[in-house]
Amino acid sequence: MKKSFIIVLSLVLTLCLLTSAAHAKREKFGSDPRHEMAKRVKFDPSTEKVRWKMVMPWSKGLLFYDIATHFCDTVRLLTAGNFDIKPFSAGELVPAMQSFDAVSKGSAQAGHDWPGYWKGKNEAFVAFASVPFGLDGEGYNIWLYEKGGAEMMNELYGKFNLVALPGGQCGQEMGLFSNKRATKMEDYKGMRVRTPGWYMDIMNNLGASVSPLPGGEVYLALERGVIDAAEFSSPAINYPMGFDEITKYAIQPGVHQPGIQCALFFNKDAYDKLPEHYRWILDIAAKETQLWSYNWINALNAEAIRRFKEKVEIVKMDKEAIIEFRKTTKAYIDDLKTKHPDVKKVMDSQEAFIESFADWRDARSGVTPWPYETFIGGRTTE
Q1: DSSP string of 350-369?
Q2: Which of 5, 54, 175, 337 is spaced 20 to 30 A from 46 at the CA atom?
Q3: CA of 278: how far to CAs of 70, 179, 309, 355, in Å?
């Protein structure tokens, strides 16, 4: 009797769905482009064993290292151990800031990074890492996967004999850990700050004195008073650094990095030798890592910020200061676009996406319970 009821119910639901589809006034609004691609894949039945090395700028004490190893684990699991990528932390195989060149030249086959580290090679790398007042985590995910961002990333890395994929999204960064309370624009003039990337230049333009100290030197510089303030990463990644032990304030929000985006990159010669299904596995594992890291890091961030509040005073920049930061940032990026064609190409694409997404972003605002600032479009919500 129970089995018969389930069968009848299934038939009724199927008829309802078919009836609904028959009465649709328009074609289905979207489709999955990978579906047709997947049907064309020619599977190699071999169980070829591949052994790669992955290098990175991360020590094992940073959560970025866990993101890289998560990707390696996923590849190994999806291939039943036949494709094994062994991760090496900074200094184990090559120095931290030589990981890019090591993979480019083939000394290692894979790497993991924060693309902004390669600013000296091409200014546009920063746009794939985080843009002040730019894309947040949601924005990066949509732009990269649906609006051509991943293809642009791969094109840029491709100039260096590399194949690249998005490889970890860590959400918004914290602002500055500081021994000076700075909420107004004038408070930043003369402040000695540690920050890298485009934000370093922007802070200098606003009158601060900025240095891109390596992460391992920041604690000592704060403790000795060499710098007044520093930013490093998201709350969970900052927590082991112990900055809250030697500073009084955490100045929010982290306008400099609304979304921390990482990348995976592979030596192109090694990549091209892989069976096609192994290349697909790299792509799927990278997407899984992107999703997992965003959820994992942000869950940890919530706990880390609670702990920071027990040690330092959380202060917020005035709205006027945020607006001034925004204006200075726009002028700086507009100037970069006139000097660097690759920056213009990438930033024009991001800005076009921001504009196209604005109606939906605005339409759904005021409903979500999440009390965070919205940086897309340079606006803040109370």
Answers
A1: HHHHHHHHHHHHHHTTTT--
A2: 54
A3: 17, 50, 45, 37
Give the per-residue pLDDT at 6.
58
Distances (CA, A) of 72 to 67, 68, 83, 84, 250: 9, 7, 9, 7, 34
Instruction: Please tell me the distance from the alpha carbon of residue 265 to that of residue 104, in angstroms, as a whole number.
Output: 9
- The three-state secondary structure class of 112 is strand
What's the whole-model pTM score? 0.87
Distance CA 10, CA 16 (A): 10
Task: Tell me the pLDDT band of 369, cut-offs 50, 70 and 90.
Answer: very low
Rounded Cα gap, residues 111 and 108, in angstroms: 8
Element (H, E) at 187: none
Residue 92 and residue 80 in contact, taking contact as beta carbons nearer than 8 Å: no
Digit-coded pLDDT (tens) for 259-285: 999 999 999 999 999 999 999 999 999
Q: Does 198 have pLDDT greater than 50?
A: yes
pLDDT for 283-334, tens place per residue? 999 999 999 999 999 999 999 999 999 999 999 999 888 888 889 999 999 9
Domains of the chain: 51-171+259-299 (3.40.190.170), 176-258+312-355 (3.40.190.170)
Rounded CA separation 148/128 (Å): 12
How far is 68 from 89, CA to CA, in rounded Å? Answer: 10
Q: Output the CA–CA distances (angstroms, integers) from residue 16 to 7, 10, 20, 25, 242, in the order listed.
A: 14, 10, 6, 16, 58
